[in-house]
Structure formats: structure tokens, C-alpha cells
Amino acid sequence: VDLLKCGVDSGHAAVAVKGEVVRARKPMVIAGWESDAHKIIYANPAKMEDALIYAADNNINLTVFDGEDELRRMAAIPGQAFECVLRLATEDSSSVCKFSAKFGADVNEAEHLLTVAKDLGLKVVGVSFHTGSGCGDVAAYRIAMEHALRVFQTAEALGMPPLTLVDIGGGFPGDMSGYGGPGMPTFQEIAAQVRESVDSFCEALDATPMHIPTTGFGDKHATGRQ
Q1: What is the pLDDT along the chain (226 residues), one digit of tens a residue?
Q2: Where is coiled-coil annotated (predicted)?
Q3: What's this model's pTM, rounded to 2 decimal places?
Q4: Torsion angles phi and psi, residue 100, rounded to 5
Q5: Residue 156 and residue 105: Cα distance in Å, rounded?
Q6: Residues 6 or more apart from 123 whose CB is under 8 A from it?
Q7: Which of 12, 102, 117, 212 lies 20 to 30 angstroms, CA to CA, from 169?
Q8: How far apart are CA 83 and CA 85, in angstroms?
Q9: Where are the domains of the chain?
């Protein structure tokens, strides 16, 4: 709860289940910030109907998907105004905690999923990914950003409104030595790769730097880039 409050205080909160959504929204209500509920990112790509209804009723519209079933569940919610973010699987074989076996669509599925979203009248605004906690190879961020670029370009080719958001996940080490022990990439090494990849991404799109939300709480660092 304290971490969620910290996220809300900073202007954004990434949440995964309905209980976290409720807890993230509570301090906003107390502070009179209910109009900022749109800054909550509902990051679970497979949500129950009641959770989607709660989100829609409380202006929590920024939400993640990684499959066609989730798109159809979202489209079926009365009065929804969801802003959908496609979660991509990543190359996380070198990570301590791997998530892509459970979450994320293969980049080759992106065109189909974007087409389904478009046909359902859903608004897609961006891409998210997570290279896994304790990422053992900084190149995973470069590959993931290259895949994100493919999705942005595919959306443009499909005649969809321009995508505007990339969520680069979490799992960043909170100390100098790197999560997972000696030999693992440090925060500084990961940050350098992320910065280079973001610059290449924006250059390819002829875009100005975007807000790239991240999660990363550790001993010495929090992450994010404007």
C-alpha cells in the first residue's frame, strides 16, 4: 500500500488486480484528486468482468491487454472509454524472474490484435513490456524497444491514430551491484541501454521524447524518463 501511495503521490500508479486499483484510488479520493484516476495504469492483461466494470465506472481507462479475449471483454463493458496498451512478450531467458511465459503477446501477433481492437472500436494508445526482474542482459531492452517500434509502425500502417505511450516495465536493480548478484547488469548499465534505445526509437518515428512510465523501487534509485 505504501508503494502504491508513493506512486500516486508521484502522479502515476501501476496496478495489477482490482484490490490494488481500489487502494491506488483511495488516496486520490481523500486528496480530492479523483480527476487524476486516468493516470492509473491497470497493468493486468487478463481482467475479470467486474474489475473492468469498476475501472470503467471510476475513470480508470488506461489498461493493458495481450490477447483477443481481453479485447472482447473490454469492448463489451457498457460506456467504456478504455485506452488500451498492448503488452509484448520479451526475451527474458537471462532474467531471474521471467514473466513472458505468462504475460505478453508475441510481436508477430501485433497486427492481428491491433486489427481486432480497431474493428471493436477500441482505442489503442501504446505498448508495454517487462524484461523480467533481475534482467541478465541489457540487450533485452534494445530488442523490446525495437519490437515496440514495430507495433507503432504497424498501427500507423493500419490507419490507426498514432500511438503515444511506451511502458518499459520494472524489475530494475536498486543497488550498484545489480539484482541477482555479481556479474548482473547494474542500474547504470540498464539505464544507459534504455536511454540509447529510447533515442533510437524516437529518431525512427521522427518523434519528440515521450513520457515513458516505469516501475522501479530500490535502495537508491527510482526510474522514469520524460
Answers
A1: 333 333 444 444 454 444 555 555 554 443 344 556 677 888 889 999 999 998 899 888 999 999 999 999 999 999 999 999 999 999 888 888 888 888 999 999 999 999 999 999 999 999 999 998 888 899 999 999 999 999 999 999 999 999 999 998 877 776 656 666 667 888 889 889 999 999 999 999 987 765 555 555 444 433 333 3
A2: none
A3: 0.80
A4: -70, -15
A5: 19
A6: 81, 82, 83, 84, 161
A7: 117
A8: 7
A9: 2-205
Instruction: Give the whole-angstrom CA distance, residue 59 versus residue 33.
Output: 12
Q: Which amino acid type is present at position 55? A: A
Maximum CA pair distance of the chain? 51
Asked if residue 154 lies in contact with residue 144, where contact means CB atoms within 8 angstroms, the answer is no
Cell (9 digits) for 102 = 505468462
What is the rounded CA–CA span in Å between residue 181 and residue 40?
A: 33
Fold of 2-205: TIM Barrel (3.20.20)
